[in-house]
What we know:
The protein is mainly α. It contains 3 helices and no strands.
Amino acid sequence: MADIHEDAVQAVAEALATTPPDAGFYGYAEHALKGLRAEGLAVVQATEHVALLARAEQGEAAIARVRALHAQKDYGPYCWHCSENDYPDYQTPWPCPTIQALDAEPNHG
């Protein structure tokens, strides 16, 4: 986070460096705000990026847990979870519908 603060100070310094000498107080303040707005946008975008990465990692972890539940049995092509309470009468073939849904191509249409 220290880098972000340093970047904001640098953005303000650069904005102030381009302020005309006769701009007066409000001119300097306006240029400083422009620098902060530009840097603030970058900070917001970086924060959103970190949040999206966290959501992606959570999603990947959830998918891994589902895959672990719906793993193929050691003794045949059946799903552990879907067949758990059905043996010996019925066993769900593996890949089960859950694994098939995870492996399917996304439908963006």
